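User: Before I run my own analysis I want an independent prediction to cross-check against. Here's the chain; please return only the structure tokens and, at the end, one sentence I can use as a sanity check.
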Amino acid sequence: MINAAVIGFGTWGRTMVESLEDGNPPIRITTVQTRTLKPDDEAFAKQHSLSIAKSYDDILADPKIDAVLLATPASGHLKQIEAAAAAGKHVYCEKPFTFTKKEAEQAIAAIHKANRVVGVGYNRRFHPEMIKLHDRIKAGELGIIQHIEANMTYPNALFLPPTVWRSNKSEAPLGGLAPMGVHALDAMVYLCGEIDSVYCQSSARVVQNGTDDTTSMLLRLKNGVSAYLGVMTTTGPSFSFQVFGSKGWVRIEGVTHVAGASSEERRTRQFGTCKFLPVKGPVETWEAERLDIVRATFDAFATAINGGAPFPIPPEQIIHDSAVSEAVIRSASTGQVEKVK
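Assistant: Structure tokens:
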């Protein structure tokens, strides 16, 4: 059994714990650590029989802990990953991995040097509907892929106090990019390859808490496919992802992680109605199967640690995803089309 510690004990740190409670989990979370310990944190830890570590250093010094699961702001990921690798721990890192290519390369290098396994929480690519779409594209069933279009929205920024880190522009640049948009960008890379350039515009239309709430991106992939992504943090919850090809299109609809939703909903209900409309022939409509995609990422992470199949998101794609985020942030600042370097 792989023993792990969760670092960061907000909503998503708790969701990690809840995803590994049932059905013979491959990872056992024994310990949690958070910068600010609140009474409800202590109550949750007690309810789930978790130890509370005083510091990250204490976690790294514990020989009984095999892996750290980071549910912390991206700005601290590099140092946390380097320290974990030096301590001989495997690392699962919530997205975004980092906001720059350089930091991603340094983090991956540290893990490789320590001969440890790295996983990252781009969990939507683990869903069966995304895997089926990937296989449909590779089999040529959509013909020549022309365009990808995605929208991800939720109302969470309407309820965020200005003191939390998600209201800090240095921690959460471009509003919905980090909590939502990076999932869609990673899916584009998974389905159709690396992204070459991006133009981004971003603004605060509704909230004035320090970060943006309305962000849109135009992208060009290296193979010529065009793409659009819009993320908004002050409207109703939605997720839509559509791939257009010369033989037809596929559209996946669902929801995003709405503040206050149950753990089960956050983990299993992101994918809903799916549709395939070919150029010739009848439309196909179906409901996505329900899968705990948080648990699915941990299953894959544990398999890799135990010497099985490598984690499905390879290091070069983890690095590229960070490079894309870096270019998006840079474009929003310069107002220009920016190359993904």
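Sanity check: The radius of gyration is 20 Å.
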